[in-house]
Amino acid sequence: MNRKLMGTAVIAAVGLSAVALNAQERPKITGISHLAVYTSDATATEHYYTAILGAAKEADPENPAGTKYAFSSSQYVEVLPLPANAGINRMDHAGFNTADAEGMRKYLAAKGWKAPSSVTKGKDGSRRFAVTDPEGNKIEFVQLSASAKAVNAPKVIGSHLIHVGFLVHSREAEDKFYRDLLGFRPYWFGGMTDEKIDWVSQQVPDGHDWLEYMVAGGPGTGIPSTMSQQTLGVLDHFAVGENSVPDAFKKLEAENRLGTGRHDQAPKIGKDGKYQFNMYDPDGIRAELMNFKATEKPCCSPFTAEDPAE
Fold first, then answer.
1. Which of 14, 65, 149, 284 is a good FRET partner for 170, with 20 to 30 A between their CA atoms?
2. CATH says 29-291 is which class?
């Protein structure tokens, strides 16, 4: 082959590679997988997740030092020992379920996002990998094991984690990852007042669970030096879906499950028009019982996507 033909062949090959790169399809992101949090008192935390919320205690498939508190076969809270350098932080990462972890890893790498060289396999047969979002939050993508078993949790207060939320500084910066790259879809936004947006809900592209930006950090990234652990725990949270939060609250009271832990006095209707009831684990991470559907008109913006369901 002469030089001219060889050059033409090389250009064609490069062009085909570029087309293949652009054609890389994003695997489905179907919902919330888990929230991973830290504990400074493993015994108290176990009581909270099992006796109060009713989740099933299981071995952590990812970290032998951790514990998995399962709400269903596909959703859980992962509790890890508190690192020495954690400061007031009690959240390690958030996780989303995907149909193909390796495909998602390749997709992100093809789009220029920093991704690991391979996925890891959990002891339960799940596959996963982690990246960081634009503000440095650790985000995992989890492919469930084909042999995932039903969870034995007869007293679980709800079996569907409908959203996770965490501290965000810049809605615009985070949108470059969640909206532009991953395809998350707008669901609702609002604030304590009409003049300021405090919460931005973005549904996963292939389901109805959502990520909630808790826009409270001001400029920059990381945890503000003036923020308290209690405030941070309000921002870093997960929500359990309910057909009726008032009924779930009555059940917790009737079974004497609330005890002396920190929690709201009673359910209330939030700015989004949905009933909610907040509880806090021993280190301050918030668990929010939330109705699947609104009972009042939401403030600030309408819902722009279908609600999750049980």
1. 284
2. alpha beta
